[in-house]
């Protein structure tokens, strides 16, 4: 009995230690976790090629090459369109400046002349040191992004090549008495994660198309860029929707100068949300996660508080795994 308690305490200690290490190393984990995610998503394609007699390494090279090629083709296809949108935006700058001077500045002046706002503004003016510190941090952020862009494909390739070996090594490190339980639980988690990530990716790409085409059809000059960015941001719950509504509405006001254009923006958003809510998400993602909307909001806020932006990205799959874990424990111990 004493030995069982000691073993349980040891496993709890190791788990807590691993969680602490992950928390401390969170700032540098992004390329490794993103590489692991890409390897996880593309490993079934490697397995499918192997079923047709293609050697493992050749399958990995083919799938990895197709992944890189797809990303490059997407960039090449979107670059001219985005460049055209940027040129249209630059051409519209005089109109934007006129809108700022005639519409925005009077509102700003009225706010500045308000005593409470003036006091708040004077107490929160940035110091030169704060500006310098922000510039330095921005420089480090750019370097970090560059390093992540280089590291992510390298990590993806090696993990994809050794994915089965990694899984086998993890399995062998598990104590024999709990190995069957962990393997069963891991299979359930794999089913949930696979459904979530692959479905969410299709939803995200579909929203890029819907928002981009819809905003372009109503004549919004930067509609394609807003639609693509909004679709990509939809991987974070509510962020993509918020971005599309706010930025597209402001762009419509600047371009057309009346609220009727904003109504067209809201119509495009309503169509996109309807398609996502009633068709894309139910059929592509399904009800495998089954999180209540309040649980979704709490998960996103908790993830952002603990791990900043990366925590927001992984909040929903982490919450889904926690739900699977609690369901497994309840079924295992009948409570």
UniProtKB/TrEMBL annotation:
GO process terms (BP): transmembrane transport
* Record keywords, A-Z: Membrane, Transmembrane, Transmembrane helix
Q: What is its main location?
A: membrane
Q: How does it sit in the membrane?
A: Multi-pass membrane protein
| Listed transmembrane segments | 12-41, 53-78, 201-229, 235-254, 261-281, 293-326
Q: Where in the cell is it found?
A: Membrane
Q: Which terms in the GO cellular component ontology are assigned?
A: membrane
The record, for Pfam families, names:
AI-2E_transport (PF01594)
| Family to which the UniProt record says this protein belongs | Belongs to the autoinducer-2 exporter (AI-2E) (TC 2.A.86) family.
Name this polypeptide is given: Putative PurR-regulated permease PerM
């Amino acid at each position: 009995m004493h030995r069982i308690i000691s073993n349980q305490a040891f496993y709890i200690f190791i788990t807590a230690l691993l969680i602490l290490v992950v928390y401390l190393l969170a700032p540098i984990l992004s390329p490794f976790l993103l590489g692991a995610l890409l390897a996880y998503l593309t490993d079934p394609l490697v397995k499918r090629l192997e079923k047709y007699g293609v050697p493992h390494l050749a399958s990995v090279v083919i799938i990895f090459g197709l992944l890189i090629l797809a990303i490059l083709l997407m960039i090449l296809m979107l670059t001219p369109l985005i460049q055209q949108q940027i040129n249209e935006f630059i051409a519209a700058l005089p109109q934007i400046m006129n809108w700022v001077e005639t519409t925005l500045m009077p509102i700003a002046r009225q706010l500045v002349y308000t005593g409470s706002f003036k006091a708040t503004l004077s107490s929160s003016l940035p110091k030169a040191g704060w500006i310098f510190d922000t510039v330095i941090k921005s420089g480090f952020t750019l370097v970090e992004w560059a390093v992540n862009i280089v590291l992510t494909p390298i990590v993806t390739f090696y993990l994809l090549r050794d994915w089965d070996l990694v899984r086998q090594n993890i399995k062998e490190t598990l104590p024999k008495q709990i190995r069957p339980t962990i393997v069963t639980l891991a299979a359930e988690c794999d089913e949930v994660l696979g459904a979530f990530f692959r479905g969410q990716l299709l939803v995200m790409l579909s929203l890029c198309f819907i928002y981009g085409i819809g905003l372009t059809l109503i004549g919004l000059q930067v509609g394609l860029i807003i639609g693509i960015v909004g679709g990509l941001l939809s991987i974070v719950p509510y962020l993509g929707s918020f971005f599309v509504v706010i930025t597209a509405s402001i762009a419509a006001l600047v371009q057309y100068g009346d609220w009727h254009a904003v109504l067209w923006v809201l119509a495009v958003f309503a169509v996109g949300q309807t398609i996502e809510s009633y068709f894309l998400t139910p059929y592509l993602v399904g009800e495998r996660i089954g999180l209540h909307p309040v649980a979704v909001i709490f998960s996103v806020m908790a993830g952002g508080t603990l791990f900043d932006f990366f925590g927001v990205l992984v909040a929903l799959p982490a919450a889904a795994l926690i739900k699977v874990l609690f369901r497994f424990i309840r079924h295992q111990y009948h409570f």
